[in-house]
Write a structure and sequence with these properties.
Blueprint: E1 5-10, E2 12-18, E3 22-26, E4 30-34, E5 39-52, E6 56-69
Antiparallel strand pairs: 1-2, 2-6, 3-4, 4-5, 5-6
């Protein structure tokens, strides 16, 4: 149902999303990323895009919550 998603910490918190379909909403406190069958909402502070390719999206910042949306 969900594409491969990895949460890992390396100094600051980061989220790696593989198989994303683009960014629906972007701000320093909230990012919503489209996935194949749903979307993922990341909320926190100082959120930003570290790296983005057609397949992978690496986001960084201080994460407070991660939730899946339909």
């Amino acid at each position: 149902l969900f594409p491969y998603t990895t949460l890992f910490r390396s100094g600051s918190r980061r989220v790696l999303l593989c198989g994303h379909k683009g960014i629906r909403y972007y701000s320093e406190t909230e990012i919503i990323v489209e996935l194949r069958d749903c979307a993922v909402r990341l909320q926190g502070s100082n959120l930003g895009i570290c790296t983005m390719t057609r397949q992978e999206l690496l986001l960084g910042g201080v994460l407070d919550s991660v939730s899946f949306l339909r």
